[in-house]
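Sharing a chain and its predicted structure for anyone who wants a worked example. Both blocks are below, sequence first, tokens second.
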Amino acid sequence: MNGAVTRVPRLSVVVPNFNHGRYIAEAISGIAAQTVPPFEVVVVDDGSTDDSIARLQGMARERPWLQVHRHPENRGVNTTCNTGLGLVTGDFVLFSAADDRLCDSMVERASAAAAAHPETGILFSDHATMSLDGATTDVMPLALPKQRRYFSGNEFVALMQRNLVGFQVSSVWFNVSLLRRLGGFDPDVRWHGDLLAAYVAGFERGAVYVPEAVSYVRLSPTSYSAVGFRSRAQPDVLRAWLETTRRPGWERARAALISAAIFPEYSWRALRALRSDPAYLTPRLLRRIVRYSLWTKVAPLLGSGLRARIRNIRDQRQRARWQAH
């Protein structure tokens, strides 16, 4: 024994909120119920016009660990998350939407992974959803071996080349110092800003897969990302993604994104956006666009049972490939 003490990484949670007063108590209760509590919890209210602030102030009186910060006017989700990023003092941070809910062991699982790999760029996990009323939940494991695993930056690129792992950013813990150096979430990329930051951080410092350390996303057709994806602004946001990657200092991140064929949408609409940046469109990315575009046309004709069987076969094959490695 040399007497050295290794500090356990501190995990912070930021909850951006805008007019989700009806859900915020459930979100905070999910954080309070953690088997291992986070180091700190910061709610950033983005100029809500409902009863969010009154509810938050009441909860803060009962829970001294709950910090509440308020924007005097609405500034957007990415700016709200960036405010939270500037306020936290932990080593890793999770941005948990005010209408999401953490599974009880999320912080415990993430803490163990962060302690084992304190320099990693991100910790990521499986897809998890809940119904609009929060009564039912579902976890959809990623097509990866069912144990915690660290991928170096190069291995994370290779993972995405072989098997596009579309993780939910709601279940991603970011390395705070790295995310700050990357500039946080770019407001120009809007509803894809967190996704861009997650991939870039993983390519930069590596990523740790933490099975079942999930945040349940509330299935709502009116969520910020769902509305944005369907909106007429989506092509402009796709072009903003490309413009961001062409900025000075982004050369390494852009090369990794291109090599891994990462783009926030794989569709014929995405091809139109990519005309503005033909260097980004590689054969691998084109194949993905064709494959996913065809799948979105065919899948509705197959029925939910057959679609589930096809996904299970695909996931089993992908896991077998990982076992072979």
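Comments welcome. The CA atoms of residues 10 and 90 lie 5 Å apart.
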